Amino acid sequence: MGPQEDFKGFYDYIKLPRLLDRNKYEFHTYGYEVTSKINSVIQHGRYTRNQISDIYRNIDLLVVPSKCKETFGLVALEGMVNQTVVLISENVGAKDLFDKRYCFSNLDELVSMIEKIELTVIPNIKIKDITEHTKEILNFY
Question: Using CA atoms, how far apart are residues 28 and 44, in angstroms rounded to an integer?
Answer without folding.
Answer: 7
